[in-house]
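Field: COMPLEX_INPUT
Field: COMPONENT_COUNT = two
Field: RESIDUE_TOTAL = 420
Field: MODE = joint
Values follow.
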Amino acid sequence: MPKIVDAELKRIELAEVTWRLIAEEGFEATTMRRIAERANCTTGLVTHYFASKDELLLAAVERGIDAAEKRRLYLRNVAPGLPVLREFIVTMLPLDEPMRLHWQVWISLWEQAAIKPMLAKEWLRMTEFSKTQLRAHVDDAFRRKHLQQYIDIDLQTRTLYSLIYGLALDVHHKDRAWDKMATNVIDSYLRTISTPMHWNALDLETSTAS
Amino acid sequence: MPKIVDAELKRIELAEVTWRLIAEEGFEATTMRRIAERANCTTGLVTHYFASKDELLLAAVERGIDAAEKRRLYLRNVAPGLPVLREFIVTMLPLDEPMRLHWQVWISLWEQAAIKPMLAKEWLRMTEFSKTQLRAHVDDAFRRKHLQQYIDIDLQTRTLYSLIYGLALDVHHKDRAWDKMATNVIDSYLRTISTPMHWNALDLETSTAS
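Field: COMPLEX_OUTPUT
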């Protein structure tokens, strides 16, 4: 294997180890030494790839985002407009273990961003990215007339985004009742901005039971 | 001053110092030593009052909640029902520096709760408390018929709560445009569940300009 690929793989491995450690033990406990231990290498090797814990945190978050994107590939086969908008939102919620861990790491970045300008810039860049994705789905559903035509797309994107974030923060309730409630909050809101015809066409009775 | 009062004051002082340190420098950097430095005392004195950083974190969060409650006393003079519901929600948003710092500390507790069962219990207890407060306001507005009578009070409380939390996580944008947007998100949502008469009676054009 060429050296350059090897180096890239090592970076990815370290980012994944960091991701898991932050999610399981918290950002504070995730020291360079713990990361090296878990990755079966020396602390020197870790610092060779990442100069600081902040850089590792960013790499871990990026890995989490990449993984979430991969798990979202099936959305390509979901009907466009309202159906894919709803499904996209559901994939952002912490309804399974990988997404719960993802939110864990994501909020660690949030916390660090409050005290470190470099991380604040990255946080803003990353949230803008996911907000833009959500907005594209809202916009598409709107242009297909699956959403009420009097809505303000920016305001609705902001509202949906805040709902998702707020629900995600509620992740410490880890039970099925919570999952159902979170989906209900999203659905009852989406319903108010959808046209009745397209909302009913979602046929949620069937899909949420699956 | 009797010793017992003295001890209580010292606890409060340490909690406040911790609160400010977490908000300004993050939970990780807030060591017992930093707290002692800021409070002009020995690390031994800090550990005399608080056995661990986790206990200090809880005390800091409690102080933040108490302070927020005090700043909310004026709500007693706001008209009951929809007006006080809206105002209560606005007081939860990070629209000024104390509330921004409060959210900072609050989310630190969230992060620690993910990895420490004792803190998870406290987090759930505290969120239940503020959810109950919000629900009481929603319920009152509903019983006064300021809200649409077909709404599900629990679902609406959950939705509003999630919106507030989601907006609060957006705190790293610190500009007036954000403040206006956050208030807009809340208002446009509250409007959909209010009766038009009571919504219009809020006369928001005047109050938001003030």
